[in-house]
């Protein structure tokens, strides 16, 4: 687990991009179509991270793990998908330091992957529109495999695609799901503190390090994991 770092897997929402404004717009449009009160962006920020179906269930129930009526969920999920498709990249931006960090990692010759719980139909256009698709040798979305993070499968799948051992692969994320998936995959994990961790301090999940921005990542790897 302490081999030199040869690949870096990066989470999308809350790590590379602040997508909360567009996700909140889609959630609120869905709720309005169902005759419900809007949730607002602050609530949506706490609900992001376990994929789109769970986000919609949280918006319908106000609970993190509750199951809404299946027929209501189906209707709401279709409304959400339609709304998010239209809002996808209106207000979504790269966080400061992301472009510099990706460029630095690529210049070090590291293989890069993007591992997100976001559905693939949104991941690919978003990466392309923000101009960062070309950095990633593999993209694994929330519906690429039967299970998303915190299951280690998406991370192990990405490492296998890049032909790099898990012990030589670093996960970078914003949430406890990223830390748990990395630990279960036998990978080191670095977190950023600015994303969506359900309102909790990410340091409590005990990643190997917390860095203020991705601009710090190339130097961290050179010092800690080269
Ligand atoms: O919950 C989501 O849809 C996305 O979350 P992630 O990109 O942080 O994995
Ligand atoms: Mg995230």
From TrEMBL:
Keyword match Protease: no
Biological process according to GO: carbohydrate metabolic process; DNA repair; glycolate biosynthetic process
Residues that coordinate or bind Mg(2+): 11, 13, 174
Pfam families on file: Hydrolase
Enzyme class: hydrolase
EC number: 3.1.3.18
Gene3D superfamilies: HAD superfamily/HAD-like, Putative phosphatase, domain 2
Active site: 11 (nucleophile)
Catalytic activity, reaction form: 2-phosphoglycolate + H2O = glycolate + phosphate
NCBIfam families cross-referenced by the UniProt entry: HAD-SF-IA-v1 (TIGR01549), HAD-SF-IA-v3 (TIGR01509), PGP_bact (TIGR01449), PRK13222.1-2 (NF009695)
Function: Specifically catalyzes the dephosphorylation of 2-phosphoglycolate. Is involved in the dissimilation of the intracellular 2-phosphoglycolate formed during the DNA repair of 3'-phosphoglycolate ends, a major class of DNA lesions induced by oxidative stress.
PANTHER family: PHOSPHOGLYCOLATE PHOSPHATASE
Official protein name in the record: Phosphoglycolate phosphatase
Lineage: Bacteria, Pseudomonadati, Pseudomonadota, Gammaproteobacteria, Chromatiales
